[in-house]
Design brief:
heterodimer, A: 120 residues, mainly beta, 7-stranded mixed β-sheet, 11 strands, 0% helix, B: 109 residues, 4-stranded antiparallel β-sheet, globular
Chain lengths: 120, 109
């Protein structure tokens, strides 16, 4: 069955960087896209960016351009989201979600989320 | 800046019908925006309900349907159940980038 397993919760200092992982299983990783979405406490969903594991191509939301980097390791079917220059407003639950190639923009399976707390 | 707008909150009686909408400040929402709808309950990850306007997943209850209505994307729940009380989010595609709406809190009362 399709699964997206995310890394565990993190606490970071302001100004530091964070890197969250999303390990995919149950489907051909390189035939998909991985989205990253975050949700601050009590707030709505915010789309951050997308990576195509097949060729590593990425698109970032304008708000995060220059501060977020999406990468992948096809040998382990794992996608990564790195966010730099952290501030308190980056404290949130970070989700990964997949879209299969050939299925128009369908974010069908989601990870459970990784809680990141930015605090001094 | 692209803004996607949803009703902040709606209330519906059990067994009733309710329509949630999703508008874009760039103009009318068309099929090209590939509207998605997600349901989220407290403490849970979002669950996909509808993609590309009206396509359902195998797990999407039949009472949920998606459409385009008056220049907006719409999610209609017919025969609402108590378990449908949740936050609902739409997602629109803007040629590579995507934007979520602010969410609609649906209360079943």
């Amino acid at each position: 069955q399709v699964q997206l397993v995310q890394s565990g919760a993190e606490v970071k200092r302001p100004g530091a960087s964070m890197k969250v992982s999303c390990k995919a299983s149950g489907y051909p990783f390189t035939n998909s896209y991985i989205h990253w979405v975050r949700q601050a406490p009590g707030q709505g969903l915010e789309w951050m960016g997308i990576i195509h594991p097949g060729d590593g191509g990425t698109t970032y939301a304008p708000k995060f351009q220059g501060r977020v980097t999406l990468t992948r390791d096809t040998s382990t079917s794992t996608a990564y989201m790195e966010l730099s220059s952290l501030r308190s407003e980056d404290s949130a639950l970070y989700f990964c979600a997949r879209t299969m190639m050939g299925v128009t923009n369908d974010l069908d399976y989601w990870g459970l989320g990784t809680l990141v707390t930015v605090s001094s | 800046q692209t803004v996607v707008t949803q009703e902040p909150s709606l209330t519906v009686s059990p067994g009733g019908t309710v329509t949630l909408t999703c508008a874009s400040n760039t103009g009318a929402v068309t099929s090209g925006y590939c509207p998605n709808w997600f349901q989220q309950k407290p403490g849970q990850a979002p669950r996909a309900l509808i993609y590309s306007v009206s396509n359902k997943h195998s797990w999407t209850p039949a009472r949920f349907s998606g459409s385009l209505l008056g220049g907006k994307a719409a999610l209609t729940l017919s025969g609402v159940q108590p378990e449908d009380e949740a936050e609902y989010y739409c997602l629109l595609y803007y040629g590579g980038g995507q934007v979520f709406g602010g969410g609609t809190k649906l209360t079943v009362l």
